Amino acid sequence: MAAKLPYWRLSAFYFFYFGCLGTLVPYWGLYLQSLEFTIVEIGQLMALLMGTKIVSPNIWGWIADHTGERIRVVQLGSLLSLLTFSGIFWVESFWGVAGVMLLFSFFWHATHPQFEVVTLNYLHHDHHLYSRIRLWGSVGFILAASTFGPLLEWAGIELLLWLLVGIYSGIFISSLLVRECRPISDSDSPPIWQVLSRPEVMSLIGVGFLMQVGHAPYYAFFTLYMEQHGLSRGFIGQLWSLGVVMEVVIFWVMHRLIGRFGLRTLLLTSLLLTIVRWQLTAWLADSLAVILLAQMLHAASFGLFHAVMIALFHHHFTGKLQGRGQALFSSLSYGAGGAVGSYYAGLLWSGYGAMMIYQMATVVTVVALIVAWRWLFDPRIGK
Questions:
Q1: How many angstroms separate the CA atoms of 346 and 40, rounded?
Q2: Which of 22, 46, 91, 349 could be a cystine partner for 144, CB 3.0 to 4.6 Å?
Q3: With 90 as the cut, is the pLDDT of residue 26 above it?
Q4: Residue 253, Cα to own-chain centre: how many angstroms?
């Protein structure tokens, strides 16, 4: 019998977790800039932040799959990320900041993939309702990105550290409110190597990697890019929020879209609109109307893409492979893709100018579209 869905407790974790992202992604680059790091150094540090996501989720996913104690992994990772992040108050050198970022991100990245599995276990066969819970993460991102920009302009960028300590505390406390929920059956899981050897799974991983290489310039440098075009930090925070508001809209109607169009069609649509988004951002960044439109396309480039990928990975990695499946999605796409994209975006900006980082994003997304069109077709779950 499926466990009763603790909707608000699950939602609270997503609220704080993505509220943390809504604080880190728009404003962490500004904090690093305040320490007088160069664009290349900022790119390297942001790559490090994403790079730990390559290793961490897989280690903790293996532990969770073999112990069955997923929520304990989430709670431990949340606590250790809070404690290790606190070390940022005592370091200002490049290597000191790198060390703290390495530690807190290693534990922080352990939490989200395993919490995704817990949520999907609670939903059981109602996976199409996942987006109704996940949208509260988008709400947390919106509130953080929209309110902290003006606050940091008024109080100074140093306040960012205290805001993050408060949010990491919220992540830990909310994780304590959720109980373990194990899958109804986990006896039908094939060996993981069999799953990974399937062409559609290899293609799925490749598409996730390429999509996040393309998003890395946005996550790492969009705030600095918009400052270069004369926008205030407060207004840039509103731009970040607009993108996530559109993401919320997509999450709210996602269950209907999946039923009507199928996962494959939605994935291809997401990739195509992402290409349009990066070209608008590259060529017409001086036009406020165009940037507003580009931010609205975040609904497709993140919201639509993320919901489809979560469903596809959960379909292919079943039973005892659930934790490692979500960990692979997190590590090989957001981790490896984000790290590679952030590193090369910093080099491209430094050598050829800011516009080139979005041209890079366009090229890799075109490749992802070709891969998805050619190999991603599963008649059991997509049209």
A1: 5
A2: 22
A3: no
A4: 20
